[in-house]
Amino acid sequence: DAGITQSPRHKVTETGTPVTLRCHQTENHRYMYWYRQDPGHGLRLIHYSYGVKDTDKGEVSDGYSVSRSKTEDFLLTLESATSSQTSVYFCAISEFRTDSNEQFFGPGTRLTVL
Amino acid sequence: GQQVMQIPQYQHVQEGEDFTTYCNSSTTLSNIQWYKQRPGGHPVFLIQLVKSGEVKKQKRLTFQFGEAKKNSSLHITATQTTDVGTYFCAGLNTNAGKSTFGDGTTLTVKP
Hints:
The structure holds 2 protein chains of 2 kinds.
Chain A: E1 4-7, E2 10-13, E3 19-25, E4 31-38, E5 42-51, E6 54-57, E7 64-70, E8 73-78, E9 87-94, E10 103-105, E11 109-113
Parallel strand pairs in A: 2-11
Antiparallel strand pairs in A: 1-3, 3-8, 4-5, 4-9, 5-6, 7-8, 9-10, 9-11
Chain B: E1 4-7, E2 10-14, E3 19-25, E4 31-37, E5 44-49, E6 55-58, E7 61-65, E8 71-76, E9 85-93, E10 98-101, E11 105-110
């Protein structure tokens, strides 16, 4: 497996509290992604990064922000968590090319917002 | 935006039966990737198809990319209990700079 870790692996929090999830890679891949996975919805892209301090929105970005100050770290922040953000969050990395986007996924973070 | 539809959502088979999942994109793709996610696990890359009409095989798994590069399929011959999991396709649109995942097909295999 690619060197990609996520922390924490599990978190329970209350509505209205801020939450930050961390993704760390040792592969020096340029692209990093945050997805959420919910039953019946597959993997939905929240935000992604194509370099240090270069980020863009995905299809479900409302209520989330990201930061990437170093190649190896990509942070996902829920400024004020809501119950609808209860989900499993996956980070992924890739070396994006014009005809290739093989992604390596982290183990996931299970977030519960009460 | 780009949409990737995957069918069926669920498939239950008897061990030894064949299985096929289909993926259709609303736009022409640069390539398509397939991933497998075991229950409780994370998605793992299986294969990538790039060329129009491409067919690739991995043991009992056969992957096809349509001539128009808008659809793809994954076929498993003689399923085994180890094939259990959710299979995702992901279509790459180079202009968009990212891949779009289908909702996945969850396969269960009855011994």
